[in-house]
């Protein structure tokens, strides 16, 4: 919901006010503040970057290798 509100052009303070008006609280039961909204959006974008990096496909690269056996 926070991401959608932010994409629609609302700022951090307005999103916090909206969430407080609707009766939503943070995970710990506190009221929303603008810095909490900022943190949620930042963690979301970091998570998206990690997922994109994890799902990236790499082409295999082969080099010259050999095996040696010693007796």
List keywords for this structure.
71 residues, mainly alpha, 3 helices, 0% strand, 52% helix
Give your account of this protein's structure.
The chain is mostly helical and 71 residues long. Helices cover 52% and strands 0% of the residues. It contains 3 helices and no strands. It is elongated. The termini are far apart.
Short description:
This protein has helices at 2-7, 12-21, 34-54. The protein is built from 3 helices and no strands.
Topology:
Blueprint: H1 2-7, H2 12-21, H3 34-54
Backbone CA Rg: 23 Å
Number of helices: 3
Low-confidence runs of at least 5 consecutive residues: none
Strand coverage percent: under 5%
Largest sheet: none
Distance between the termini: 67 Å
Order of helices and strands: HHH
Strand pairing plus helix content: what structural class?
A: mainly alpha
Average pLDDT over all residues:
91
State the helicity in percent bands. Answer: 40-55%
